[in-house]
């Protein structure tokens, strides 16, 4: 009843743990059997290991949080040798979330994943592009087009491209990524925000700005999922501030074929289980036989 299919990959339900908020799955095993999830998107992986950013990395805001983790991760080879093996034992779809500072970084990481049994790639184009002075790949659609078409030509995995809400025009960005060969899209990543420590009279984060996530961004994310899913003919995975099953149903009605849960995992580690159960009960109560019936009905 909750099964969905994205790019030929079957998900037992549409609830996926969002990248960067669920580690590699192990971290939540003490709370519930994470194998009940539709999938887990790994922490953002880069070709080389990264220590992440100096200074404060996470900061609570009203109705959400800000982060500037800086893609701390063990690197793609370590992931393939260690974390992936454990993730595959969790009995859920494994999505490898890939970041990069330049085109070559992305390419090398993607090629290394070709011979693995990951189920899907989620290409994070919100990463700062070193060659263009640090502006993220996901801001200008022509730049995103170049990355996505290159990656599409070298991967043998289904390619989901994760869009940034900071894009100049989210619909144009989605259409361009589709033209470049994206098999599906996920949105949204964090919104660029700012916080000041008034006692120190300086920015809270060493990098000045940081990514805002959580309930505060939900209406924006929902609007973008609605706009994008009407503009493209590929599956859209919705995320941004989903905190409960009602939010999840909203995203599906707006056009999402599946949803991801991020920040809520920090405030309620049981959220994944509760959202799956809540969606199931909603379908029973409403007499809906198949979750696919409600995708994009609004
Ligand atoms: C601490 C933290 C780390 C994150 N790391 C990544 C990452 O490595 N790659 C990525 O694509 N998104 C990353 N994200 C973004 C989330 O996956 C998600 O797109 C965003 O937080 C919006 O969803 P939410 O409001 O449900 O958290 C991170 C978010 C947080 C809060």
From TrEMBL:
Catalytic residues as annotated in Swiss-Prot or TrEMBL: 127 (nucleophile)
Signal peptide: none
Gene Ontology molecular function, alphabetical: dihydroorotate dehydrogenase (NAD+) activity
PROSITE patterns, alphabetized: DHODEHASE_2
Keywords: Cytoplasm, Flavoprotein, FMN, Oxidoreductase, Pyrimidine biosynthesis
Pathway: Pyrimidine metabolism; UMP biosynthesis via de novo pathway; orotate from (S)-dihydroorotate (NAD(+) route): step 1/1
Sequence similarity: Belongs to the dihydroorotate dehydrogenase family. Type 1 subfamily.
Main location: cytoplasm
Cofactor: how and how many bound: Binds 1 FMN per subunit.
Subcellular location(s) per record: Cytoplasm
Protein name: Dihydroorotate dehydrogenase
Lineage summary: Bacteria, Bacillati, Bacillota, Clostridia, Eubacteriales
Catalytic activity: (S)-dihydroorotate + A = orotate + AH2; (S)-dihydroorotate + NAD(+) = orotate + NADH + H(+)
Gene: pyrD
Keyword Nucleotide-binding: no
Dihydroorotate dehydrogenase catalytic domain: residues covered: 1-283
Enzyme Commission number(s) from the entry: 1.3.-.-
Organism for this UniProt entry: Clostridium sardiniense
Cofactor: FMN
Residues that hold FMN according to the record: 19, 43-44, 97, 124, 162, 188, 214, 240-241, 262-263
Enzyme class, UniProt record, top EC level: oxidoreductase
Pfam families assigned to the protein according to its UniProt record, in alphabetical order: DHO_dh (PF01180)
PANTHER family: DIHYDROOROTATE DEHYDROGENASE (FUMARATE), DIHYDROOROTATE DEHYDROGENASE (QUINONE), MITOCHONDRIAL-RELATED
Role, per record: Catalyzes the conversion of dihydroorotate to orotate with NAD(+) as electron acceptor.
